[in-house]
Amino acid sequence: MKGIRWGIIGCGDVTEKKSGPGFQKADGSELIAVMRRNGELAADYARRHGVPRWYDDADRLIGDPEVDAVYIATPPNSHREYTLRAAAAGKPVYVEKPMSLGPEQSAEMIEACRSAGVPLFVAYYRRAMPKYLRLAELIQAGTIGSVRCVEATMFQSLRDRDRDPAQRAWRVDPAVSGGGLLLDVGSHALDLLDLLLGPIERSSVVGGAANLGGAYEAEDTVTGIWRHGSGVRGTGLWCFCADRDEDSVTIIGDRGRLSFSVLDVAAPIIVEASTGTGGVSGRTVIEVPPPEHVQQPLIQTAVNELCGTGSCPSTGESALRTDLVMARLRASE
């Protein structure tokens, strides 16, 4: 393909700045159609973003002969169905994360796209952001020596809306999201570690999930340990009923450590170099400004792959690995 014309199914909040404009601004890419079940909202989005046409029916967008590829930006409970429909129509798919309600659905989506001969990309967009690619470079350059272990933590306090069933977000409704906030935001850390340190060995994952805050049905606290195929050991703690909002990943080597935020894409990378005798010889702060539209770098890689000039680092297969790890972490204690 010389250029890719995209259609969006589900033009909600995530498409306003994070992703939607990226499909318009990426080289060789156009956004030509959007769909939302509420036609007035779809028309409003198309007008505000300069999109030529809109639909209130997903099948009409998928069937549009001028739409080359489909971006699915709905909640996870409809990802499988829309992916299967797009694949059946021979359209490549870029789908929001988490990929589906769970590993079984994700595997079905992968097989449907494979059988149809179309790519399946998943919006774990940090895989292509400059900040996290810089992290990969630091690790590969041996900046902290041989990596030994990694610690991931994420804390969030309960919001008032979480306590009110009338205001509660779909992200903590298992029927819509597949589970708690580990799937929605915690998944980014696990996917990044897959990229930075290599795939996690699923058989090594030991975890437990609990609902400690009692504000909603889904689990709000998850703990776990694991081992990467490289031998690096990992620990994780995700608590979404804590006293504050905070997230950090620390990758520890035999000559230093790297610390960074997953959710705050503008926060710097901290490099601490060790003297090798129990002390610290230096601390470096590396600032890597985020792009205006955080998904645009990953969108560009998807466009490049579809045009035959590159490859996308976030696929159905890589996202399924994260799904499988999360399923193990959320196992009942």
Walkthrough of the structure:
This protein is α/β, with parallel strands linked by helices and 333 residues long. The protein has helices at residues 20-25, 39-49, 58-63, 79-88, 103-116, 130-140, 160-163, 174-177, 181-197, 296-306, 316-329; strands at residues 4-9, 29-35, 53-55, 69-72, 93-95, 120-122, 147-155, 206-210, 221-227, 233-239, 246-253, 256-260, 269-274, 280-286. Strand 12 (256-260) and strand 13 (269-274) form a beta hairpin. The chain starts with a strand and ends with a helix. The model has no long low-confidence stretch (mean pLDDT 95). It has an 8-stranded mixed β-sheet with strand order 8-9-10-7-11-12-13-14, covered by helices on one side. The protein has 2 domains: 4-125, NAD(P)-binding Rossmann-like Domain (Rossmann fold); 130-290, Dihydrodipicolinate Reductase, domain 2 (2-Layer Sandwich), CATH 3.30.360. It has 11 helices and 14 strands.
| Oligomeric form | single chain
Instruction: Identify the CATH homologous superfamily of the largest domain.
Output: Dihydrodipicolinate Reductase, domain 2
Q: Spell the H/E element sequence.
A: EHEHEHEHEHEHEHHHEEEEEEEHH
CATH class of the largest domain: Alpha Beta
How many H/I helical runs? Answer: 11
In whole angstroms, the N-to-C terminal distance is 50 Å
| Global structural class | alpha/beta
Fraction in beta strands? 15-25%
Give a short account of the largest sheet.
8 strands, mixed
Shape: globular
Mean pLDDT: 95
Model regions low in confidence, pLDDT < 50 over at least 5 residues: none
Number of distinct beta strands: 14
Query: What spatial order of strands do you see in the largest sheet?
Result: 8-9-10-7-11-12-13-14
